Known about the structure:
Elements: H1 2-8, H2 12-34, H3 37-53, H4 64-90, H5 100-120, H6 124-134, H7 140-147, H8 151-173
Amino acid sequence: MEHIKAIKKDDQHAFQHVFNRYHPQIYGFILQRTKSAYVAEEVTQLTFIKLWKQRGILSEKLGIDVQLFGMARQVMIDVLRKEATRFKYEGESAETPLTDSLVEAIESKDLLQIMEKDIENMPKMRRLVFELSRKQGLSHREIAHMFSISPKAVEYHISKALLQLKQHLYSVML
């Protein structure tokens, strides 16, 4: 957290420390997903530029790594979309790995991982009710009968779970 505070105060030494520490990790993260050294280098550089430009709005509640990888993911998606559009208008082969389907796959995989982690961290009863409803397709009445609770209580647990997921996904997407 001290790096965040220092970077927010325009401390270039703190920024350099974060750059040196996370550059290889960000590069590897992007390279693994895109299989392109060019895109990985471009996205990594743009990520650190974005970090510096947005230093004033960094959250002191989240670790620098969480915020940095979130930025990298968003920059990667933006770059891939631009590349896909460029290929489309230049008439290049649609079989290029940099297509909208790749972007969608990355977004979906990342969101699913975030959601699964959030579901695991829910209170036990909320998690059980949510999983029975959404993953196993049981009705509110069936779940209520299983746990000897009212269907309204099931509805309450599901609405709380959905609200929790929605709030966290919203914060991640910013």
